[in-house]
Amino acid sequence: MRMSIGLAGISGMSAVALGAFATHGMAGQEMAYARELVEKGAHYQLVHAVVIVAVAALAVFRPNMRLLAFANMAFILGTILFCGSLYAIAFSGLKAFGMVAPLGGISFMAGWLMVAIAGFKAFPAHMDAD
User: Fold this and answer.
1) pLDDT digits (tens, 9 = 90+) for 68-105
2) What is the pLDDT of residues 26-79, one digit of tens each?
3) Whole-number Cα distances in Å, 49 to 3, 25, 93, 105
4) Using CA atoms, how far apart are residues 35 and 55, in angstroms rounded to an integer?
5) Which of 22, 57, 71, 76 would staple 114 via disulfide (CB 3.0–4.6 Å)?
6) Phi/psi class of residue 49: alpha, beta or left (left: φ > 0; alpha: ψ in -120 to 50)?
7) CA dist 67 to 8, 40, 57, 81, Å?
8) SS3 string of 33-44?
């Protein structure tokens, strides 16, 4: 999980930098579509950087739950594929990179599903405060 937290920090920092670049460095109507892609990529990247840290923190309480490690791997892969493809389109103009984005989206969804399953497995129903 140490690697996940380190990568989340780098991911969060680069998401903020890319978001700032989109806002301040991609001015003008001709850059509107590229700016939108970078902003969307930075948003997803930043959200999932926070999630990776949160899942790593949860893993401290459930160290034998490998599903949390797999979830973090899925979130990291999703960031690379989904956000990376948006950045590649924005900076290169090659829309063919868009074929990679759905794989990243599926990876994000798989990570969230693994977190859900881990939550249901890790905390018995009798712990619910109804």
Assistant:
1) 999 999 999 999 999 999 999 999 999 999 999 999 99
2) 988 889 999 999 999 999 999 999 999 999 999 888 878 899 999 999 999 999
3) 12, 23, 26, 15
4) 30
5) 71
6) alpha
7) 18, 28, 14, 21
8) HHHHHHHHHHHH
